[in-house]
Amino acid sequence: MTQKYVRTKSVEWSEMFEIERGYKAIIRFFMDHDERFLLDLKHLCSGFVNDTTDLTNNTLTNCNETKQQILNSTIVITSHSFTIITVSIQCGVATMYGSFNNSNPSLANYDYITNATDMSPGRMFVGKPIAPSTFFHTISSKMLCGLNTTVCYNAHYNITFTTIGVNDSCTTVTTQKHLTQQQARKELQEKRKAEAMASATALTHALVDHLNSGVAQSYVNQKKLDTETKILQANAAHFAKMTMQWLKLVEDFNTALKEIGDVENWARNIEADMRTISSALEYAYRKTEEEDEDT
């Protein structure tokens, strides 16, 4: 029985499956936006499928901790075949990068990329290389926490390899279109990464210039503050000196006032003594006159 799949508006990929008499084919087909699509895979392409060694039940242990695994597989692809690498995951998310030329493919350098979630497996359509060679792929996976424990008691991911030989040119065209589009996406991503780096560099330069300007202005302000501090210190020293002189003058003035008070008291004492002497002389004079009159 041939299975038909329908994808509606704004869907970039349509995934089509055929299971008939032991043959299994999985291809991904490009669709235009805003267009309803219906495809019978059996009438489009027919061919043979050869499953190779799979990597199953790769356990995810720690919650929200990224696990990275570097793998390599010898994939022999003829001019009339291609290999589909499928990544399925339970209770997590995974990203796989692939390359024939880079032994450690990553986001910075890859030829193929796919993402997988619980509900959506990821697939790589690996076309024929220049010569049969080792295909390297790095998978970065992470177990997600907070999920239903009855479903996610066994967090893991699986990697399966399916080699498809085709005898219909339409599948070859579809595959080549996919590979071309994948290369275009990679180039677009590289372009966006370069633009982002250029923007980040420009922003960094602007920030550095701004910081340098701020540092220079801070240096000038610091010099002004140092100069004003020295002036304030000189003024404070001068004020302290003037204060000491003023205190000395006040002390001398108080001493003079004290001395003036002492002179005034001395004058009053002299005046009192003179009055006493004058009274005594006057009394003596009167006494003498009285004695003369009696004689």
Structure in words:
This protein is α+β, with helices and mostly antiparallel strands and 295 residues long. It has helices at 41-44, 169-294; strands at 4-7, 13-20, 23-30, 37-40, 47-51, 55-59, 66-75, 81-90, 92-99, 112-116, 122-126, 133-143, 156-166. Strands 5, 6, 8, 11 and 13 form a 5-stranded antiparallel sheet that branches. Strands 7-12-9-10 form a 4-stranded antiparallel sheet. The protein has a two-stranded antiparallel sheet with strand order 1-4. The longest helix has 126 residues, at 169-294. The model is unreliable at 1-51 (pLDDT under 50).
Keywords:
295 residues; alpha+beta; 2 helices; 32% strand; Biogenesis of lysosome-related organelles complex 1 subunit 1; BLOC1S1
